[in-house]
Design goal:
This protein has eight helices and no strands. It is mainly α and 169 residues long. It has one domain. It is globular and about 40 Å long.
Length: 169
């Protein structure tokens, strides 16, 4: 699309939020879709072929970790939010939708993408437990831990009041 490499522009992160900042809505939307599909497709396909929840949960974890630490980019990838959400949709459209709505409500309320993601994935394991998806709840507790780690600089900026807001450059 003729845009600068998001890994060397803006925040240096290849995720949709940074692509939005450096490239606009269309590239960000395509990035979000691609990152989400990285989680959705392996989980949904595995669930159809091997309907064993612990196996499907481990596939979700593998897709997520593969996004955070990609072999082809020297193990420096995105922060994993869209891939984790995509994997959730692969497990259950209802829980994926509930998580997406949670993110949307938080992002509209506070206008901070990273805060919305952190709050959402803190409560996702509760959604999963309530629906009886114990294996996925356990995996999403681990995923939430990785999300907090990958967002550690964002957390510092949230506390300092300097984290960029959605819609602001």
């Amino acid at each position: 699309m003729g845009l600068p490499d998001p890994r060397t522009s803006g925040s240096g992160n290849p995720g949709a939020t940074n692509v939005l900042r450096v490239g606009g809505k269309l590239p960000a939307g395509l990035t979000l879709l691609g990152d989400g599909l990285k989680g959705l497709l392996p989980v949904a396909i595995t669930g159809l072929i091997i309907p064993h929840p612990p196996t499907v949960a481990l596939v979700a974890m593998a897709a997520f970790l593969g996004h955070l630490y990609p072999v082809f980019f020297d193990f420096r990838g995105g922060k994993g939010v869209a891939t984790a959400l995509g994997a959730l949709f692969g497990l259950s459209m209802q829980i994926g939708l509930l998580a997406a709505i949670s993110w949307l409500v938080m992002s509209l309320a506070f206008r901070i993408s990273s805060l919305a993601a952190l709050v959402t994935f803190t409560i996702v394991p509760l959604y999963l437990l309530t629906a009886g998806h114990t294996a996925f709840a356990i995996v999403y507790v681990v995923i939430a831990g990785f999300l907090y780690y990958s967002h550690r600089e964002n957390i510092k900026r949230i506390i300092a009041g300097t984290e960029p807001r959605i819609g602001k450059s």
